[in-house]
Amino acid sequence: MLNRRNWVVSIIALLVVLSVAACTAAPVQVPDRDIKVDVDTALAAQNKAAGLMSGKVDWTESEFSSLLSVLLQQNGGTNNPIDGVRVWFEPDNKVYIQVDLKEGVIPNVSTLDAAGTVSVANNHVMVDLDAVGAGNVSVTGASLAPLNAQINAALADPSLGVAANVSTDTGTISVGLGSGS
Question: What angle do CA 55, 173, 38 make, to 5 degrees?
């Protein structure tokens, strides 16, 4: 499982980037498809994750989002600033992420939104964020390099396995492990 410190550091890095970077007054747009997030769906997604041992797993947006949300809730502790996460998948490995914040974490902001792509490099899943936003403010370009580096360092954790490929389509993600998956 991901170390909660890595997520907290990533959020702090995002806030620092937002405060010092040249920001634009435009929100990051996420798809308008509804994603159901609940414990039962998270358990189903966790059971599907056992399929990684045989080489491949396919998750829907709801399964992936539920699994992430429940893991963050269970491992985040009492000071966890996150209520939940929703992740949308589009063709060509495009992803959109919306992090629901608990009330009062950032004044007048209820979500952090991000858009980017996923890939595999050096046998680990990698994320390349194109835009990150809080409320009506977003950051794009090279300003996101430190945040991408922090997220990718967390994803390179050996306990997450060795990815051979990752692909997305509308509403789904497929992750293959080992060679030739």
Answer: 105
Task: Return the number of other C-beta atoms located less than 10 Å from residue 25's C-beta.
Answer: 8
Is this structure's pTM higher than 0.70? Answer: yes
The domains of the chain are located at 4-177
pLDDT tens for residues 34-66? Answer: 999 999 999 999 999 877 777 889 999 999 999
| 172: CB partners within 8 A, 6+ apart | 58, 59, 60, 61, 89
- Give tens-digit pLDDT for 166-181: 999 999 999 887 654 4
Query: Which phi and psi (to 5°) does residue 81 adopt?
Result: -85, 0
Nearest to 166 by CA among 85, 72, 52, 29: 52
2 or 108, which is more confident: 108
The CA distance from 165 to 173, in Å, is: 11
DSSP string, 27-80: PPP---------HHHHHHHHHHHGGGGGTEEEEEHHHHHHHHHHHHHHHS-TT-
